[in-house]
Amino acid sequence: MNRNTFLKTLAGAAALSMTGLAALAQSGEPIKVGEINHYKRMAAFAEPYKKGIELRLEEINAAGGVLDRPLEFVFRDDQGDPGEAIKIAEELMTSEGTVMLTGTILSNVGLAISSVAAEKQWVYLASEPLADALTWSQGNPWTFRLRTSTYMQAAMLAEQAAKTDAMKYATIAPNYAYGKDAVAAFKEVLTKLKPGVEFVGEQWPALFKIDAGAEVQALERSKPDAIYNVTFGPDLAKFVREGTTRGLFDGRTVYGLLSGEPEYLEPLADEAPEGWVVTGYPWYDFTEEDGANKVFVDAYQARFNETPKLGSLVGYMTAATVAAAIQKAGSTEGEAIRQAFEGLGVATPVGDITFREIDNQATMGAFIGTTALKDGAGVMTNWTYLDGADYLPSDEEVAKLRPAE
Amino acid sequence: MGLFIAQILTGLANAGALFMVASGLSLIFGVTRVVNFAHGSFYMLGAYVGYSLMQVLPGMVGFWVAILLAGIIVGLIGVIVEFCVLRPVYSAPELFQLVATFGVILVIQDLALMIWGPQDLLGPRAPGLKGVIRIMGEPVPQYDIALIVITPFVAFGLWYLITRTRVGTLVRAATQDREMVSALGVNQAWLFTGVFFLGCALAGLGGALQLPKGGADLLMDFNILGPVFVVVVIGGMGSLPGAYLAAVIISVLNVFGVTYAPQSTLVLMFVVMVIVLMFRPFGLLGKEEVAGEHGQVGEPERPIKPAGRNMRLLVAAGLLILGLLPFYGSNFAVVLVTDIMIFALFAASLHFMLGQGGLVSFGHAAFFGGGAYAAALFVTHANTPMELALVLAPVCAGLAAIVIGWVCLRSTGVYFAMLTLAFGQLLWSLAFQWSEVTGGDDGLVNIWPSDWASDNSVYYYLAFVLCVGGILLLRQAAHAPFGYAMRAARDSARQAEAMGINTKRIQWVAFTFAGVMAGLAGGLFVFSKGSIFPNELETARSFDALIVVFLGGVKTLSGGWVGAAFFEGIKDYLTRFEYWRLALGLSIIVIVILGPEGIVGSLRKAGERLGILKVPEDAK
After folding, report:
1. Do B457 and B390 contact (CB within 8 A), yes or no?
2. Contact at CB, B531 and A234, closer than 8 angstroms
3. CB distance A203–B432 less than 8 Å?
4. Residue B576 clears pLDDT 90, i.e. is over it
5. For the stretch A133-156, what's the b/e string if a residue is b when 16 or more beta carbons lie within 10 angstroms of its beta carbon?
6. CA distance B24 to B71
7. Mean of the pLDDT values across residues B84-92?
8. pLDDT higher than threshold 80 for residue B300
9. What is the pLDDT of residue B292?
10. Is there a smaller number of Cβ atoms within 10 Å at the N or the C end of chain B?
């Protein structure tokens, strides 16, 4: 807290020295935003995310804030418990005076907040949860999602897979909603692009309790041409190690959802798998040509003296989105912010994104590339950024997926 | 055939770490009667310490020395914990120590986060054992072979220590009758410390040994806990060969489960446990629990009396203050207190069967979550109105309790507790897996109260009436003849039977009644949150209730709800700070040490000492 206050003072002082207008801005009552996350339970992912938010906030406030008032995030830990998150949401919105809610990584917590948001008419920006249900089957007018959804990322990988000769696929995904969504979406899109593909094996290890040796044996037994991997975190590390040791990946292409994100690739160090087609975040490769991407990465490293994760980018974009929405609304009133979110355009390090009016999903895309080893660390090579807007189902299908408003 | 053998080898390799952690837990329980929840934390520490040592110690020798050192260091940490946290509370009521170990879990979690950071650490590979051996064409990692070889040596070493040495004789004697051992002049305190060292060292060793197959992360502690308890129970508490056998059975079955029924991995081991306990109520190689203790530890419980006039006035005043909350409290206060009241009813229902009936359940969340899910399912699939759903929630939970109680009550003590845990886990996996109906872990959302109750204040009154009413009803049951029969069955089943009380039926009814009340709390919960997810059925939720019951005081009538209110309140406050788990863990430990009789018990004592409360005649 103290450090935050110090930074705010610092930012305020900086602004004061720049223009008189900015100084005026800093004197206004801050606009507060409630940010609920699993800071302890998912510390490896939530901390970079928080830093991303802090970085963008400092920039925004140094430039005069929003609506001539400083923007402030109130960070609260929900222990990864949906019931707890709802209680905190209530406190933030009714006692703390926040104007909207953001946050969560776990999809179930995101869905819980989204449900209470619709009931109480609070705006909720689901920054990191990936579940398709959030904008589709359980979608509601008050919930908006920033990050590229499971379906979009799976569709990107399926498109790559369709270009190869592989016909027999095996899948491995954690046995919970995200894993199931990810496999279903990959199957759907791949079968559409390339009828005749066959899914010869499906493995469902319990989340973070993988028995990697047994899973690898089971996958090997189904003799697939290619493998689709959805495991992440400690599960991924164990899977990669057993798979490499036992030669599972020899002569097979692996498609890895999220596997290229620094959060998951970095812990693997020199054991990172090579030749996997993955979605991720190749921050180390950005050059001047990548424009805002490079600017963000440099600013982040200069500010925190550590390398950015994908979470950092999402956090940064979260703060940017909130500022843009409130600016566009011209007010901190809930309904005004909600309307501002419809079709909202935000300039971000990865380019301009839009919050679609049809399903409240942002068009943030993903980096897709092939993994390789470089200086004893896993990196993505030959990567491209794919725009999320191109990987969503048609408007008619989306309308069918989403309950009528 | 090759694959078959390779799979068995994978299972045997997996059994290694599992056996070491489980044997440590089994040893500690056998001698000290402490159910050490923190055992998973020592396993996690073993992995982290081993990882750090391997960064410093190079080469093949360094690798193995690091593993050994990790075991020893974790053992020493265990000694510190035993000395500071457990020694002061050995004389507390049975199972009270598990609350202290729960505090230790929280403290270790935050300390590990501070020291090693949030990133998952990938374990270094064993130097010289990085490749595979081909057995009938199937690749088998060399390190797996090493684990398969090492584990029997450790098991044999333990067996030798326990059966062939003087120390082992003492340990076995203490397992059977620790009072007798101390009466014979053995320093019991050091025996306990020694066993704790050994048990924790084994856990640390297990954590370090699995490094090349995985790594170190902050979720390890809870993840290993389920399998370890299952292994210990299937093998038979206190039996080392049993633990080895069970570890092998579970691990090998799991490997085949992964291949032939990939979706089964969530529940397989719990199903095995239920089946084993149905036929062998004390595990495969366990012996019937000889009454290890003569009577209860601690001072005898006082007879229950209705509250005096002053206490009644005090409670009435308290209820009045609570009842008027919406008029002077903030909206958030109303929401928070609603949460607390619901949790208090849940805790009170567990307290009823634990305190009055002596039935320690590790799976009470099955009825809380079960009631919540019943209500949510009726609303989602049948458009049931809230009023009806709130009736159906306790009814369904009660029906579930009848069935589950019938199976679980065939066992007693820790085995009973583990069976309830298994059923809790089965219900959880049902909610988790059956996504067409239950929504899987995406849960069921948009379950809001009827229009008239949608305002927070109105819902507050609804919860107030039902929760306070429920708690008073539980209290009334304790004073009724039924309550006397429960206590008789708890204190002396044989004498109760001789007096014509059907103890099993009494316990069955008590179990069901507690289930009904937990279900009511669950129903209220789901409408206050508007959604329900499988985590309300998780074992962690059962433990939440168990912890507050002990914190509040088992041997009191109001321990359940007082503990719940206190714990929820302090948690709501502490979670605002960065290292709240450390703070919460330390507070729990302090409470446990200062007030081994729980909050209510200690307050009563203090009140009597200060002369505010009258000491009853029969307690002098």
Report:
1. no
2. no
3. no
4. no
5. bbbbebbbebbbbbbbbbbbbbbb
6. 12
7. 84
8. no
9. 39
10. C
> Would you state the pLDDT for residue B553?
86
In this structure, are residues B37 and B225 in contact, taking their beta carbons and an 8 Å threshold? Answer: yes
Residue A43 near chain B (CB below 8 Å) = yes
The burial class, CB within 10 Å (0-12 / 13-18 / 19+), for B65 is: middle
The separation between CA A361 and the C-alpha centre of its own chain, rounded to angstroms, equals 12
3-state DSSP call for residue B425? helix
The model's pTM is: 0.88
Question: So where are chain B's domains?
Answer: 2-220, 344-538
Residues B374-379 have a mean pLDDT of: 96
Residue of B510, B283, B540 lying closest to B413 (CA atoms)? B283
CA distances from A366 to A236, A385, B418 (A): 20, 6, 46
pLDDT on residue A15: 45
Q: What is the pLDDT of residue A27?
A: 58
Q: Is A308 helix (H, G, I), strand (E, B) or coil?
A: coil
A105, A109, A119, A220: which to substitute to probe chain B, counting the most B Cβ within 10 Å? A119
CA distance A336 to chain B (A): 23
For range A302-323, the mean pLDDT: 96
Query: With bands split at pLDDT 50, 70 and 90, how would you rate the model's confidence at A14?
Result: very low
A32 interface with B at CB cutoff 8 Å: no
Side chain identity at B116, as an amino acid letter? Answer: W
Report the pLDDT averaged over residues B101-120: 91
- The residue type of B142 is Q
Q: How far is CA B140 from the centre of its chain?
A: 36
If you measure CA to CA, which chain B residue comes closest to A212?
Answer: B213
Q: Which two tokens stand for residue A89?
A: 């949401």
| Cα A3 to Cα A10: distance, rounded to the nearest angstrom | 10
Task: Specify the long-range contacts of residues B54-63, CB closer than 8 Å, at least 24 apart.
Answer: B54/B123, B54/B124, B54/B211, B55/B124, B59/B127, B60/B126, B60/B127, B60/B128, B63/B124, B63/B126, B63/B127
